[in-house]
Amino acid sequence: MKISSVVKLGTVATLAAGVLAACGTTSSTSNSQAQAKDQTLTWMENSALPTMDISKSVDAVSAETLNNTGEGLLRVGKKTSLHPGVAKSYSKSKDGKTYTFNLRKSKWSNGDAVTAKDFVYSWQRTVNPKTASEYAYLFGDVQNANAIMKHKKAVSSLGIKAEGNYKLVVTLTHPVSYFPDLVAGTTFFPQNQKVVDHYGKKYASNAADNVYNGPFKLTSWSGTSDNWTISKNASYWNAKNVKLNKVAFNTVKDPQTALSQYQSGKLDAIYLSGQQPKNYKNSKEYVARTSSRASYVEVNQRKDTMMKNKKARQALSLAINRQQFTNKIMDDGSVAPTGLVTDGLASYKGKDFAASAKVPSATSQDLTKAKKLWKEALKETGRKSYSMTLTADDTAAGKSSTEYIQSQWAKLPGLKVTDANVPYKTVLARCASGDFDSIVTAWGADFADPITFLQLFTTGNSYNEGKWSNKTYDKLIDAATGADANKTGKRWQDLIKAQRVLLKDQGIIPFYQQGKPQLVKSNVKGVVYFPVGANWDFSHAYMAK
């Protein structure tokens, strides 16, 4: 996805396909502090909300809001465990290719029933090529999804069907071990066709032109405003256990402004950057979080021969001192990367994937070698010099990234770099259109499997924005998601080999693994954070006295 206080969980419910923890209240009189009269949480965001269209959402801010105003078949909770959502139970066939979800009776915020047909419609809308969803590829394992996206089969042939209002059957092309994690993600949430059709192009473009089936509903958002509010959804099936009345999100791009608003009581939680983490590490309100969010640089290999030159890409990577950036510039819990897939995301037989698949030369600094390779690339492409623009968002972290990388790249002979820091929405648009020379971007894991990162860089993937392409890489990813999908050890090796191919060819330039330091008021209780996916769940949060 373009990225501690914990909730106390209730009893464990055994479902047909496995064990899911049932979400219980966090604030009964016997196990929690008394609640404040005003149950409003004010929360900082670094960027404005881009969209609330489930089929078109691609970023962490949208996902966070969607995750709290909507609900899928399953929900993600503490330590990324799975919980019942709209589905109260599910079963899996012996061959692992058919899932049957038994839905509870629940409602949309307008009173309509949430039915299996809402999931069928939503999934079909997302994979329909006319929708142009950048996340449609996540449905690739569902029967006929890839053929539909290539205009080779009808949308109605997608392997999902409603058997009555409260039974949903999904057919996959092959077993997918992490499929339950996928359906808990916002891209797999239901959509109300009547509402989508009614609002047409205005659908989900503001708070009013939408409906919600989650713990909250969006009640204040113009579609372009920097601030938005979600309010308790009385129609939600588990509304009795939702304690907050409102969560008010405020976009604050300047770290000092955010700190001032926090100290004056205008914000209950803020993200820290620059020198702030170092200054507040000893505060009781300081919270350091790990994140499965990787920051990296993509160079546009569509535009000219220079960025298609492997030596040029390697030189740009070798010029960067990542340890200096994370330790001296960020100093917020961020760490230098070992590759693309983040440390701690997934392991097999006790071995972390990131450690197994690393290529040290792809993430280390060697300025002497960098200069040599850059000179060779200039000569091979018939140049004496090269100019490029480095783009990133206009947040504090984005500006720190471009300034630092520019200072490192300036050491390469004949290279002139111009920084461009623009609003987050503009970054997303430029990524999608290919309107950049080089761009600092990031991806947050949608689920705890290396494929969430590695599938991005297959040929033709909409998130392969630099258009790097490698046939060996494509074959390895195809094997991991196809022939070897049910062979755990073989699939693991496919993915390790794939990352090594990507790194050896410097298809991307890994930059850093992001930390997520915060200041959170001591009376904010029960917020659930998970390092993958939409990150935040406010459905069990409350404000203590």
From TrEMBL:
This is Peptide ABC transporter substrate-binding protein. Belongs to the bacterial solute-binding protein 5 family. Its main location: other. The keyword Transport applies. InterPro entries: Peptide/Ni-bd (IPR030678), SBP_5 (IPR039424), SBP_5_dom (IPR000914). Keywords: Signal, Transport. Pfam families: SBP_bac_5 (PF00496). SUPFAM superfamilies: Periplasmic binding protein-like II (SSF53850).
